[in-house]
Each structure stands twice: as structure tokens, then as C-alpha cells.
Amino acid sequence: MLEIDLTDRAFAFLSFPGPRLSILTCQRCTCYGGAFFSKVDPDGTAQPHPRGIRPKWLPDTSQAWPEPAWRNIGVKLTPRRAIQAADWCMELKSSQIGGLPCWVQDSDYPRCPDCAKSMTFIAQLNEGDFPACEGTYYAFLCASCRTTATNYQQT
Fold first, then answer.
1. pTM exceeds 0.90 for this model
2. Residue closest to 86 by CA, chosen among 69, 97, 99
3. Which of 10, 41, 78, 83 lies at 20 to 30 Å from 98 by C-alpha?
4. How far apart are CA 63 and CA 41, in angstroms?
């Protein structure tokens, strides 16, 4: 879902060591099965979390599923302060990094599968920024466990 260059001072708020942070998502699992978790190696490479459970109802092949509209496309995420999540004048469904999420539905902070603590919001990607797409992907981090999560909401 995201590749964050941690050498950029704009991402210092993450307090995550390493040169980069990769956040994986599975479009099928996240949209229809809840949060998708991954583990991040010290070099920033991510792998699906070993405790991840693939939904049983998913087909064996993903060939029938279209690729996400944002795959291999650079997206500029706008930094936002926490107060902007509650500002009624702000666009609710925008892509952003930092601050608080602008939830499409109810708040849904995943719990880290390793320590069970609520994970920290990192960013959101609005699929509505792409033709014929809708919904918002949210990215989270448990820095101490080096675990990321994504989830998805739409109207």
C-alpha cells in the first residue's frame, strides 16, 4: 500500500528506526475480511504477519480480481494535524499522512496481534482520487512490535 522514506524529516513523527517503512495490504482480505497485518524487517521490508488468517471464502486464485487503481503510482499524501480530523470544513475523504483518520464509518483502530495494544494511525489513502473507485484504506503501526495493519471502509 505504502512505501515511506524514513530519511525524510516529514516522517519523524513515526519514531520508527530504519531507512524506510513498507506497509502491505491485501485488497481482497482488507476489503472483505477485516484488518491485514504484516511484520517489518529492520531494513523496512514487510512480509505478511505469520498470525494472519486468510479468509476461507476467498477463491484460490486472485486472477479474477483487478489490481488496485493506485498500484505502482506515486501518491502525495498531505500531512494533517489531529485537529483537522474534526473540522467540519475539511474534506472528509482525503488522502493524508499523520494526524487522525477521517473515518468513513465508525472508528476502527486495529489491535496489534503481538502485544494486543491499539495501533497508531499512520496514513489514509482515498480510492476516490482514482477513476471508478471509492472507499478509504487506513494504515497503522505498532512500532515496538514492528507490525503494520491496514483496514478499509466505504459508504
1. no
2. 99
3. 41
4. 29
Nearest to 148 by CA among 112, 118, 115: 112
Mean pLDDT of 70-90: 61
Residue pair 37/48 in contact by the 8 Å Cβ criterion: yes
- CA dihedral of residues 52, 53, 59, 63 (deg, nearest 10): 0
Concatenated DSSP letters for 54-69?
--TTS-S--TTSPPPT
Contact 147, 117 (CB under 8 A): no
Q: pLDDT tens, 30-55?
A: 766 678 899 999 888 898 898 877 66
